[in-house]
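Lecture notes, part 5. Sequence design as translation. It can be helpful to think of inverse folding as translation between two languages: the language of shapes and the language of residues. The source text, in structure tokens, appears below.
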């Protein structure tokens, strides 16, 4: 199982324990089914880590190595799967 680093808490976890965020039409989106091509950013399945990632400006753009439209945090949280 590949391991990835959470952009929020920086812990390294199995990919399956993380939520993938990727670019769709140049905008950051929750990639619920891991179907979007290209690089992904990973965040633990909890709101705190998503919020923490949002606090680190440019974290998403760096992870995806591209300029991105970043939706508002509350918009992203609506799509964000929490719990397990
Ligand atoms: Zn985390």
């Amino acid at each position: 199982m590949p391991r990835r680093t959470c952009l929020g808490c920086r812990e390294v976890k199995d990919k399956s324990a993380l939520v993938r965020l990727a670019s769709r039409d140049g905008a950051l989106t929750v990639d619920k089914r891991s179907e979007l091509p290209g690089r992904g950013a990973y965040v633990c399945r909890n709101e705190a880590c998503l919020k923490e990632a949002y606090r680190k400006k440019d974290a998403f753009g760096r992870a995806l190595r591209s300029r991105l439209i970043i939706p508002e945090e509350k918009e992203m949280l609506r799509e964000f799967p929490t719990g397990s």
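The translated text above is only one of many valid answers, since several sequences can fold into similar shapes. The chain has three helices and five strands.
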